[in-house]
Amino acid sequence: MSSTTQSPIIARDLVRTFGSGEDEVRAVDGVNLEVTAGEVFGFLGPNGAGKSTTVRILTTLLKPSGGSASVAGFDIVTQADAVRRSIGVALQDAAIDPLMTGTELLRLQAVLYGIPRNSQAERAGELLERVGLSAAGDRRVGTYSGGMRRRLDLALALIHEPTVLFLDEPTTGLDPMSRMSLWEEIRRLNNDGTTVLLTTQYLEEADQLADRVAIIDNGKIVKEGRPEALKTDVGAPTLLISVADHHVESAREVLAQFGEARPTAEGTLGVGLTQGASDVSNVVRALDAQGIAVEHLELRAPSLDDVFAEATGHRLEGAS
Description:
alpha/beta; four-stranded antiparallel beta sheet
């Protein structure tokens, strides 16, 4: 039975393997998480980290190989039908019939969820307006842009007014304006009381939307908390520099005097400045004393990318 006091998403030691024997891959490796009612929870990590597999388990599209989970108060294995009736899901690779119109798809979705016939048209119209697609409701979906399709995905996921919403990489491939528009809609939904689990590989998206984030890497959650708290824990800002190739090793030795090395993109050296921004001039003088010319210098306040790098040993930025 569903519980009104239980957190809407709970996972305990969740495991999902593919293959067997020497070929076995643990795509999800002992994931524990709890999403409380009314929050936006960000699941942050690169492609292949286990984000989407975890979401597919929680939304009953995949059975776990081990562990347990409940969503909306229902067990994802023994009460899968009840879970599906209680949640909204917008997956990254959702299949939408390009020959149907937006209105037709929404009314079909309404039928599938048992919404009364006399309410279907009104509900479809309300959702098209909510996601900014009223003018395109009678157009075939095949003519929609990527941003329009993602907004339609969201409308389809909301047709039955779920209290828990799963969004898997909702803005991948969208232009900046479409991305911001979708962010605003997610904020509105959350303000109305919807609990949202959002998977993303975009640092800014997690920072902008999530009350809490979990960083996943190689199927394991390696860090979890509120974005600001996680960034505060990193502490020192990151100084990034570029030097000529033949000076890289010498520059690395100089930087080691000012803090711990931090993972960076190829061609760049990074250090967490223990003494903060005031040490930048000292670093430059020390490099100059060794005859090392700095080609590029950038100081960054602690970011979620620094949190990810500290937890995993590599950067998320540029993940494809």
